[in-house]
Structure of Thioesterase:
Amino acid sequence: MRADPVIRPRPVERPALRLFVLHHAGGTHVLYRSWAALLPADWELCLLDAPGRPARPGVPCGTAAELAEVHLADIGPWTDRPYALFGHSMGAIAAFELALALRERGLAPPRWLGLSAVSPPEHHPRAEPRYALPDAQLRKAVGQMGGTTPEVLADPELWRLAEPVLRADLRMAECWRPRPGAAPLPVPLSVFAADGDRGAPPALMGTWAAHSTRFAGVHTLPGGHFYFQPDPAVLVGRIVAAIREVIGE
């Protein structure tokens, strides 16, 4: 494993803000590396890999709370500067659980929390679970959802390597349930959804407001579950604007 689990594609000395990004099920930080060039020059992109990735070997976490604990240790040395959290799909669940864990430990909270392509806890999950699908059906479902390179789906050897991690990630995300009695977070919360994402439809996203005392609204963008591919500039622009609004820049 790397000596430092935080990947910084464009290191910035004493950044005005660090943006930690948590990836989707079956994915890695690689899909988000290009975001560094889209952020303000004095902001630093910090990427995290969940256990079970090529750059971070190990057993995938069984629950979102366990993954949050892993990432809590990851970001600890890097929270000396103002920071924000953003997660997509499974990463959004992990980011939300990470914000809860930070509060439980009495640690400095993020200045902003962004959740993308995930239904709020009371509506989760909405679809039939995919993690237990037979091989051919799982490949089809993953291909339709996007986010996995066609090479992985087409190459038997690559699929053999990716499938166990993907199933574990999907199980963790699809079996996630809210923590009983968790009070709303005192953190600005922005939610991002795609108009063609049937798994996390924009019509449900407003109910995330119950989970933050500083709800900052829903951003709806065109596309499907991976709406920010192949050009993430619109999404990153929305993220930057949302953060600047709440931190007063």
Remarks:
- The chain is about 35% helix and 20% strand.
- Strands lie at 6-7, 17-22, 43-48, 83-88, 113-116, 185-194, 212-221.
- The domain at 6-247 is CATH 3.40.50.1820 (Rossmann fold).
- The longest strand covers residues 185-194.
